[in-house]
Amino acid sequence: MTNKAIVIVGGNLLAKELLKSFELNGCSVFLNDFSKAKQIDVVIETTNVDLEQKKLNLQEIESVVSPNTIILSTTLQVTATEAASWLRYPERLIGFATFSNFSEGKVIEVAAALQSDTGLLSNVKETFGAINQEVEVVEDEVGLVYPRILSLIINEAAFALTEGTANAKDIDTAMKQGTNYPLGPLEWAERIGIDDVYAVLIGLHKQFGEERYRPAPLIKKLVQAGWTGGESEKGFHHYQNRRVKEFSI
Amino acid sequence: MNQIKKAGVVGSGTMGAGIVQLLIQNGHPTVMFDINQEAVDRARTGIEARLERLVEKQKISVNELTLAKELLESTTDINAFKDCQLVIEAAPEKIGIKRSIFQQLEEICAEDTILATNTSSLSITEISGQIKKPTRVAGLHFFNPAPIMPLVEVIQGLKTSPEVTETLIDFAKKINKNPVVCKDTPGFIVNRVARPFYNEALRIMNDQVASVEQIDRIMKGAGNFKMGPFELQDLIGIDINFATTKSVHAGFHGEDRFRPHYYQERMVQSGSLGRKTKGGFFSYDE
After folding, report:
1. Residues B125, B129, B133, B139, Cα dihedral to 10°
2. Is position B191 annotated as part of the catalytic site?
3. Of the CATH numbers 3.30.499.10, 1.10.10.10, 3.30.1490.20, 3.40.50.720, which one belongs to the domain with range A5-137?
4. pLDDT by residue (tens digit) across B176-196?
């Protein structure tokens, strides 16, 4: 339990789920609104795809909160170190990475930026503890561990779908029943938001400069079309069914 | 449509014996073939012992056990496949061996017998390349342990006929499996899409982002995977996992997404292969 005042900034599924989760656990939490709390202890910034927006958000946050307010920033497309470099007081930024269905699990990963005051980590642990999440502290790198590995699995599933190796349903079934994944990669992407998966992929691709991390063109197109799963209810399956309809006329 | 009354399995190793057990447990008369008597006898003893354990655990009845035993014909004579409507090849993953088996099978079996391969790393199209009637060749890829894992990949080679695919889908359902259909692409579905689970975990570990223990904890705790990438490599065998990655990488002609990690090769070179050597990424000393 924490009696800290938390502000969440962002418009993705993750922002909404964090809001819901902190509210459910009795925390004083606000979405994109700094006017309600007298003193804000923690700000959580969740923008992933649009980095210009993320930068503006972080700078705006800094202009309205006190210099010692902790800023938690997602590291899906950028490292905490890069995000911290956009701030006047970079030492108060800590990175974290997860996807919007985090409440189905019990661990959120956290990474200090090179510039971070690592003394803040215990505070971060307490913040996520309030929503029943344990913290694993790892080194700062794009996507940290779980979002990075899962995004690459989803990327491979998207390449396989593009090549017509199998249909979306069979790809999902195969991964659940052939190797015990809790969800099929394509349905997983639709649940957490294909936009955040795309953010991890472009982030890794840029960070390492390796072909290995190139996002599947299909994922890029789905994001451009706004077919990112989640609330849009359109994603890989919609894409595939649309094609089937078109060819069967 | 081709009715499968009797099936045959080539090879009595782990996968071959597992497939045979699955078939007889589901009431299919099955011929199990291997080149030497000792291997066939060992496999038969193993299958019977596993079925007896299922009786003890009350998973199957004594009658079912008796019936299953009667359904199994084990042999070292490849001609025993002549009255099978389906033969599933589960021989070692060597293209030369597989091609020679398929050439023998097409001489022995009826013209409409379906010839399937349980390969996980070779191309169906390559295996069927020298066959007179490649339309009857397809992949039927089971997962270890075959009697338990629910999935079967039905793989269409470039020339596999749609009727053969349909028959295999129906057959898979009859033996209580869930078939998925895929094209003849490197690693098919599972072995391809699962590559980053291991490969990226190795990269993250070797780049010192997180430790082996941490990565496993995170993938289970945050992603709800039943096993972490390192304990799963230990279970599968790090050598087996490395070989699969190499084969998918080669199948895609060096596509960078599948590039094996040198650290995994070091593990194989060190002889720490996982549970079977009592040590891999984790230690399994009693």
Report:
1. -30
2. yes
3. 3.40.50.720
4. 999 999 999 999 999 999 999
